[in-house]
Structures are given as structure tokens and as C-alpha cells.
Design a protein that fits this description.
Length: 480
């Protein structure tokens, strides 16, 4: 019995450092079998999109190498986890299964049923908090309910017992005598081949625990000091870009939290602002846990009456970065090439789709889900509904981002636009955010041919704003 192994089921925690489930399994003194299961069947429409699958391949590759360096083997299996895990238990004679908790509705249902089934078979199950600083049911209002507004939620988190100190990294992994067969990672076809559109992803990212640590260290050393002041500037490298590493669990949130405690030299305002962004992620999971329909339905059901438009041509123009508004188009090009988009531009691009084009926020949510390397169900759903005005703590419905003014404010020299839209690289700063306002001679000198190598605007901003506000008045039952 002492040699019966235990299974460590890796999920969105693809790291060895500060991994509570792995730490507890090793502390049991039993041999361990590290396992990852590609479970698309139980995802209920939210299986990883194309960019996330590319990242997953690279992250699993890195995790497998780290485990191998410590004497272990990462076992890969594909299929419904509620079938694969019991099969592995039977195959290996494992006495227990260890995992870190997930909070997506489909994962909660699956894990609850699986835990009951395993316990019914006499197998011990141990689950841990490894992906959040504050689990969704632990932060409660004075009326013992969930929070619906971010600011009081953040204050409650900061008043709460802080997350525990991060755990160390194991030096070795005592493996079971008989390791079950593992499916080849390449057989999962997570990487694009025909065509291979991932060149930009390879250029911009290093998935895996080591890549996450290096990115966090670079942020602390080079950008944290200016974070509060410059985080909205898309023409400067001022953000952490940790979101995909956090989604896949390549760095633990406790590591980030406690590292910030020792960075007073960066200034309280910048540290506090970055910590607030970490707590916004916690808030998104808080909402998803308490309101599991968040990815599919308006959180405020009054928005069910909003007069959405179905215009495939304008939606396609938005997806392809051909709206004629440079800041929006640059953001969509950044997304397509690198699998990422600066957060300020995300808000502008999302607002443009919803309010300028009157397209349902779910269409944008679905496109981001497939193209973002940091696609995260909680963050994606909460953020799209925030912009739409239909979600918790939402932006006021009448807040309609002006993509020209946003560009002039946060990309005043057009550095960001020119990087992702080289066709506009020779336009003077005065016109780079609104090329259609440039005189013909200026356009000709810059070799910008509206309607040929750069599109005319698909809508007029002022008219689109009026139409959106009329739609909101109709939704509220007022005269348009």
C-alpha cells in the first residue's frame, strides 16, 4: 500500500513552483504520476480556441521538460476527464488524485461529479486553491452575498487574510514504478500547420514557467515604476503582459502578490494599481462563479431588448482590422499577428463593435476567444459585458469611446498605429488617427489610397454614436 502512487492532475496550473496540489501529493510520501488531460468534450462550447491551443502545446512541452529534468514523466491523455482519470486510477492502482480547483461552470460540474465517483470507488480526492488569491465564495458582502461592484470587492479583498506565501519548487519527482503510456503531444494537433499562422506568436511569446518568470522579472525591473502613469499608453511598453501566463497557471498569483509586497521602491501608486489589476481578475472569477451564465447571457436582462444589428460585412471588417479607424484596425492587427491586444485598445475595439456597429457583444467575445493567447472565460465574459453596459460594474451605456480621440490621447505620435498598420507609416501625426481628414496631396505623398490600400471608415463616428444612444433609449422603453 505504501507504494501505491497518487495522480497529480495538472489543469490551468502548468508550473512546478507554488503548486499546492503537487506540493501536497509529494508530501504524502507516495510516488506521483503527473497527468494532463485534453478534455474538449466537457467544455460545453468553450474548448480552447486556436491561439490558446498553440500556447497550450508550448506550455505542456515546457512543463514536460521541467518534470523530466526532475526524474518524472508527464502523462498526456485526451478525452473526457471524468472517464480518463478513473481509467488511469484503475490502470495504475492509484490511491488518490490531487488537483487545483477550477471555477468555470462546466469544470465545476465535471469535477464535482468526478470527485463523488472517485470517492465512491474508495479513492481519496484532494483539491486546492492554486489559481486565485481569493476563492469566489470566500469574499462576501455584509449581507453575506456576492459582490456586484468592483471597488467594494477590492476593498474586501484587501481587508481579508492575504493569500498564503508561495510554495517552493520541488527538486525531484519520485515516480511510480510503472508509468502509464502517454499520448504524443504532436498527435493532438494543437499547432497550426496548413497554413502555419503562428509565426507572430512565436516571435512575441515564450510560453512556460520559465518564460513567465522572465516576463515578470522584466516587468518589475523595467516597467513597474511607471505603471500607474503609463499603463494606458499603447505606444510604450508599459504593461506586464502576464495575462496568458496567469491563465495557464505558469506563474502563481500568490507569487505575484507577495513579490509586490516587497516592491515599495516602485512607488505605492504603481504597486497599488497593478495589484488592483490582479484583483480585477479575481472579480471576474467571482462573477463567473456566482453568475455562471455570464459568458452566454446579459447579466442585466434589460439588455435583452437592445436592438442589435446583424451586418456580416461590418463584422468581417472589424475582425480583419479594416474598419477605416486606425486605432481599432491596429489593435485587430496586433491581435491577429501576436495573439494579444493592449488593454486600452481592447476597450476601444470592443466599444466600436458594440456601439459603432451595433453588433452583439457575444460575437466579439467569440472572436477574442479564438484569437487571444490569454483567452480566459471569466475575464473575457466580464470585460465584454462591462464595455456593453450589460454586465456588473459596467461602463455607463452612454460612454462610447471615440477611436480618434483615444488614439490622439494614448498614441499621440502614432507609434502604435504605424507599428501594426505600416501602410500609414508615412502619414503626418496630425492625420494618422483619421486619414480621411488628410488633404489629397498629403495622402498621395504618404502613398495612402483610401478605398484601395486603406479603407474608408465603415461608419461615421458622430452618426454611429447617435444610433447607439437611440438604441439604448429604445431598450429602456424611451422614445428614440
Amino acid at each position: 500500500m505504501a507504494e501505491q502512487p497518487v495522480i497529480v492532475w495538472f489543469r490551468q496550473d502548468l508550473r512546478l513552483s507554488d503548486n499546492p496540489a503537487l506540493h501536497a501529493a509529494l508530501s504524502s510520501g507516495r510516488p506521483v504520476i503527473p497527468v494532463y488531460v485534453l478534455d474538449d468534450e466537457n467544455a460545453h462550447g468553450w474548448a480552447p480556441g486556436g491561439a490558446s491551443r498553440w500556447w497550450l502545446h508550448k506550455s505542456l512541452q515546457a512543463l514536460g521538460e521541467s518534470i523530466a529534468a526532475r526524474g518524472g514523466t508527464l502523462v498526456l491523455r485526451k478525452g473526457p476527464a471524468d472517464r480518463v482519470i478513473p481509467d488511469l486510477v484503475a490502470e495504475t492502482g492509484a490511491s488518490g488524485v490531487f488537483w487545483n480547483r477550477l471555477y468555470e461552470p462546466h469544470a465545476i460540474r465535471r469535477d464535482s461529479d468526478l470527485k463523488a465517483a472517485l470517492k465512491g470507488d474508495g479513492v481519496t480526492v484532494h483539491s486546492y486553491a492554486g489559481n486565485l488569491a481569493f476563492e469566489p465564495w470566500t469574499v462576501r458582502t455584509g449581507d453575506d452575498g456576492p459582490y456586484r461592484v468592483f471597488s467594494p470587492f477590492m476593498k474586501a479583498c484587501l481587508r481579508s487574510e492575504p493569500p498564503g506565501r508561495p510554495l517552493g519548487t520541488p527538486n525531484s519527482l519520485p515516480m511510480a514504478a510503472l508509468v502509464p503510456d502517454s499520448e504524443p503531444l504532436d498527435s493532438w494537433n494543437l499547432l497550426p500547420t496548413k497554413p502555419d499562422w503562428a509565426g507572430g506568436l512565436r516571435e512575441h511569446w515564450t510560453p512556460g514557467e520559465a518564460g513567465a518568470a522572465a516576463r515578470f522579472e522584466a516587468f518589475l525591473d523595467d516597467r513597474l515604476d511607471e505603471y500607474a502613469k503609463a499603463r494606458d499608453r499603447m505606444d510604450e511598453n508599459t504593461t506586464s503582459r502576464l495575462s496568458p501566463h496567469l491563465h495557464f497557471g505558469e506563474i502563481g498569483v500568490r507569487t505575484i502578490w507577495h513579490t509586490l509586497n516587497h516592491r515599495e521602491d516602485a512607488g505605492a501608486r504603481s504597486v497599488g494599481k497593478f495589484r488592483a489589476e490582479v484583483i480585477w481578475r479575481e472579480f471576474a472569477y467571482h462573477l463567473l462563479y456566482h453568475y455562471p451564465s455570464l459568458p452566454e447571457a446579459n447579466w442585466r436582462d434589460a439588455f435583452d431588448a437592445f436592438p442589435w444589428q446583424d451586418d456580416p460585412a461590418s463584422y468581417e471588417a472589424w475582425c480583419q482590422g479594416k474598419t477605416g479607424y486606425p486605432l481599432v484596425d491596429a489593435g485587430m492587427q496586433e491581435l491577429w499577428i501576436s495573439g494579444y491586444m493592449h488593454n486600452r485598445v481592447r476597450m476601444v475595439a470592443a466599444s466600436f463593435l458594440i456601439k459603432h456597429l451595433m453588433t452583439h457583444w457575444k460575437r466579439g467575445e467569440e472572436w477574442f476567444w479564438d484569437t487571444l493567447v490569454d483567452a480566459d472565460l471569466a475575464n473575457n465574459a466580464a470585460s465584454w459585458q462591462w464595455v456593453a453596459g450589460s454586465g456588473a460594474d459596467a461602463a455607463p451605456y452612454f460612454r462610447i469611446f471615440n477611436p480618434i480621440r483615444q488614439g490622439e490621447q494614448f498614441d499621440p505620435k502614432g507609434v502604435y498605429v504605424r507599428r501594426w498598420l505600416p501602410v500609414l507609416k508615412d502619414l503626418p501625426d496630425k492625420y494618422v488617427h483619421a486619414p480621411w481628414t488628410a488633404p489629397d496631396a498629403v495622402l498621395k505623398a504618404a502613398d495612402v489610397r483610401l478605398g484601395e490600400n486603406y479603407p474608408h471608415p465603415v461608419v461615421d463616428h458622430a452618426e454611429a454614436r447617435k444610433r447607439a444612444l437611440a438604441g439604448y433609449r429604445t431598450m429602456k422603453g424611451e422614445d428614440a
